[in-house]
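Q&A log
Question type: sequence-to-structure
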Amino acid sequence: MEDEMFRDFDGSLDLFAVGFFVVFGAVALVILTGILFAIYKGLAQRSRDNASPLLTVPAVVVAKRQEVRRSENSASNAYYLTFEVQGHDRVEFPVLGQQWGTILEGDRGRLTYQGSRFKGFDRTPQDR
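Response status: OK
Response body:
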């Protein structure tokens, strides 16, 4: 009864229908696996960030970067700041546009972060 769905009018096996369902199922499985992997990766990063200590360290802003993301009907911007901490280690954080706009390359101050989360940057008074 079930295999009647894949039979032609003359009772022969319709290979096109079988192939279509196999390919459709494989594509759906790949897409679902990708979505589940992205969710898992995001939850794992969130867990690592929550387990990380909240750190405040001296830092210098060494770079600013803006990324424009375009789709068919819209565009959005992503903003990033790169800090140099402890004289040689560099870390980059995604930040809000307002934060990106008020912090300049070369600013010195105290960077506060937790794992991969930017918490804030307080400039030293002599910078501005």
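Response note: The chain has two domains: 2-49, 54-127.
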